[in-house]
Amino acid sequence: MTTHGADVLDDSLLQHEAVGSDGPVLAPDGHLLIVGAGLAGYHVARGVRSHGHTGPITIFGDENRPAYDRPALSKAYLTGAVTEEDLHLDDPEDPVEATWISGVGVVGLSGSAVPAEEDGDVEELPAPLGIYTADGQFHAGDAVVITTGASALTLPAAPDSSQPHVEPYVLRDMGHALALRDATLSGAEIVVVGGGFLALEAAATCIQRGAASVTVAAGEQYPGAKRLGHAVGQAIRSALEKRGVQIAPPSRARCLRTATDGHEVLLTDDTVLKGDIVICAIGAKPRTEWLANSELTFTPDTRAVRCDDSGATVIPGVYAAGDCAQWASHSSGLRPVGHWQEAVEEAAVVAAALTGADEVALQEPYFWSDQFDLRIQGAGRIHLANQVEVLDGTPEEHNLLVRYLRDGQEVGILGINRLRDVTKWRKQWRIRGGKSRMTAV
Amino acid sequence: MSFRACSLQDLTPGEGLRIDSVQPPIAVFLTEEGTVHALDDTCTHQDASLAAGWVEDCRVECPLHESTFSLETGEVDQPPAKRRVRVHSVEIDGDDVLVELSQDAPNLPPGVTA
């Protein structure tokens, strides 16, 4: 067994009383409502079924399509290598038993947070647990899981635009990807705003689609260097440049201006990047506006639903997972938010908590990205590192292996085309059952 | 008709070896228990080499995602992969690992052709 670094933050930061410790939160024949038909929502449904839940499951999605997997939206789906059907999460030969209500917005949550004890007064009855849909209907449930994800952020319009503002392309859902897939990318001059993996993948895909030029406003000279270390930033930059992607000056994008002959991205150093098409991939914000009148609590900055590390919110029977939620270990800085793997693992934790199955531990964070011939995989608490060490390879050869340390102790690894090494690391650090060292409860 | 895929000496216990002299490429695994198995190398969900995956309890886990495949039957246990990989017959002749390719159609991931 590897020696693990001590948690950097006090474990007692967030105490949360386990709800329903006398048995499962959701009786085996209870009705489970899942709001949000994405990765986390699908996996919660699948998870509770695998734990023997027999009661009805209703999944609400605002898109008129079956649940699908998003990572390919910036890659293989945009190049046309895979179809929408290929991205469906559910297996038609072994479908999860649930009722899908698609294309109906969910507009509100009903349910009461645990009331403070009052001196023997008879309390008014707690609000019934359930949700309201846009058509005015109330749907009662025995438990509610919120998995509404996040919506794409974009840049504001320049105050001095003389033309009506045209929104840039974003990449978050199938509708966005469809719009970009149908756009004439071939021969176009394209500006991609953002320095994260989504932006870089989109840039690589635009080159593959035959764009005349692709410029990335990453906000740093070596994309990814701030988060992942200089060597990784160098490797990414060299791979992008080799294939013709240009990296804009390392200045933040400020706003967008629609001109008569295209679009302009204005950077804070007053650089103006002109393009026929602008793609914004500058992050996302939790989709929780519909919960504004509920008794849930939110993070002050991002308005994510606050949960403990089982996904439980302050309302008994209401859980949240995936990009709309911030669990205790996210709040305390132990885990990053927004990865595919994070949504899948949280769904498994919630499914176990709902059904009273054996507790599931969150594993070390993990992410991957494909850009041209780079397959980048990172694992561990990279965001907490204060030292980066190249273990093998060079940025130019696309075979880099780096490890991350915090105060001298290894906390993470990243490999470029090093699948075997990253797999080994993840398995050495795997937690089997019991409490995760990654939780803050 | 079998072919010599590799030598036993080429294999490391608990790991896979990618053989790309055939299309689609296959992976030969030597388990910690000493058994040898041959499967299609490409995960059925997305283009990733199973030879680089984790081998345990006679299963290999895709190095990208969560799905694991049985080394004996090729069956997949959980999403995101939905379809099994082909299993090829293996025969050991001295040091030689002889593989007879399955006649089934391969379940390659979308966007990947043999």
TrEMBL record, chain A:
Residues 31-347 form the FAD/NAD(P)-binding domain. InterPro entries: FAD-oxidoreductase/Apoptosis, FAD/NAD-bd_sf, FAD/NAD-binding_dom, FAD/NAD-linked_Rdtase_dimer_sf, Reductase_C. Residues 366-427 form the Reductase C-terminal domain. It holds the Pfam family Pyr_redox_2. Keywords: FAD, Flavoprotein, Oxidoreductase. One of its GO terms (molecular function) is oxidoreductase activity, acting on NAD(P)H. Its cofactor is FAD. One of its GO terms (cellular component) is cytoplasm. The keyword Nucleotide-binding does not apply. This is Oxidoreductase. It comes from Kocuria subflava.
From TrEMBL, chain B:
It is an enzyme of class 1 (oxidoreductase). GO terms for molecular function: 2 iron, 2 sulfur cluster binding; 3-phenylpropionate dioxygenase activity; metal ion binding; monooxygenase activity. Pfam families: Rieske (PF00355). Residues 3-99 form the Rieske domain. It comes from Kocuria subflava. Its EC number is 1.14.12.19. SUPFAM superfamilies: ISP domain. The keyword Iron applies. Keywords: 2Fe-2S, Dioxygenase, Iron, Iron-sulfur, Metal-binding, Oxidoreductase. The lineage of its organism: Bacteria, Bacillati, Actinomycetota, Actinomycetes, Micrococcales. This is Bifunctional 3-phenylpropionate/cinnamic acid dioxygenase ferredoxin subunit.
